[in-house]
C-alpha cells in the first residue's frame, strides 16, 4: 500500500481547518443576526408604542403644551439583596446599546456577599436601543427602574411588596432570584412567590421571573425542577435563566479595567426579556385605552324638530 505524501496530508489538514473556521464564522454571523433582529424588533415595538401615545394625545390633549416629554415604557426590576437585579439592569443596557469592551455601570450593585450597604433609593435608568450605523435615537428608550432590595424573605410582608411595586409607576415587573443562593434562603424566597405574584396582578401588571447565576446549576434536571417550581408558585410561564455581566466574570485585572466578552446566550436572553416586557406593556395600554373608551358617555342624538310656527297642516282631500 502506497503511503500518502506529506504535502497531501498537509493539504487535507488545511482544508479541514478552513472548513471548521468557515462553520464557526457562519455560526457567529447567525448569532449576531439573531441578536440584531431582536434589537430591531424592540425598536419597532417602541415606535409602535410611541405612535399609539401620539394618537391618544391628539384625541385628548388638545390643550396640552407641545414641550411635554413622552413617557417611555417603564419596567421595574426588583428582588432580594445581592440576587443580581442591578447587574441585570447593567446587562440589559449593554445588550440594548450593543456595547463592547469594559462593562459600563448604570446601576450600583450590592457588594460581594450581600452585606448591608445602607439604604438605597429607586433609580431610573434610561436604556437606549442601538439601531445600526451608530443610530442612538432618544425616542428608542426603555426605562428600567432599579428598585431598592426587598427585605429578607422570612420578614417580607404584603406591605413591603406593595411598596416595592408601587413607586415609579411601572408598567411591568421583573423579579430577580439567584440560583446559587443557600438552599434555605432560596426556598424561603420561592415560597413567597405566590404572594408577590398576587400583589403584582392586583396592580394590573404582569410578572416576569429571572433566575440569575445559571452556571451554578449542576445539571439539566436540577434546572428543570427549579423552573417547574418557580413557574407553579408564580403562576407564570415567563421564567428565564441568565448569567449576568459583572466585573467578577473575568477576575481582577490590576493593569486596566477588565474587558467583558459579550456572550450570545446572555445577550439573546436579556433582549428576549425586554421584548416580552414591551409586549405586556402594549397589551396593558391597549386594554386601558379600551376601558377609557367604554367609560365615556355617548352623546345623545340630536333630533331635528320642526318649530311649531313653521309647521303646516295638510288637509286630507274630501
Structural class: alpha/beta
Largest sheet at a glance?
6 strands, mixed
Termini Cα gap? 130 Å
Q: Based on CA inertia axes, which overall geometry fits?
A: globular
So what's the CATH class of the domain at 74-289?
Alpha Beta
Order of helices and strands: HEHEEHEHHEHEH
What's the total number of strands?
6
Number of helices: 7
Strand arrangement within the widest β-sheet reads: 2-3-1-4-5-6
Average predicted local confidence, pLDDT: 82
Say what the CATH topology of the domain at 74-289 is: Rossmann fold
Task: Return residue spans where pLDDT drops below 50 for at least 5 consecutive residues.
Answer: 62-69, 302-306, 310-316
Q: Which percent bin holds the helix content?
A: 40-55%
> What is the fourth-level CATH superfamily of the domain at 74-289?
P-loop containing nucleotide triphosphate hydrolases
CATH architecture of the domain at 74-289, please? 3-Layer(aba) Sandwich
**How would you describe the oligomerization state of the chains in this entry?**
single chain
Strand content: 5-15%
- What does the radius of gyration come to? 28 Å
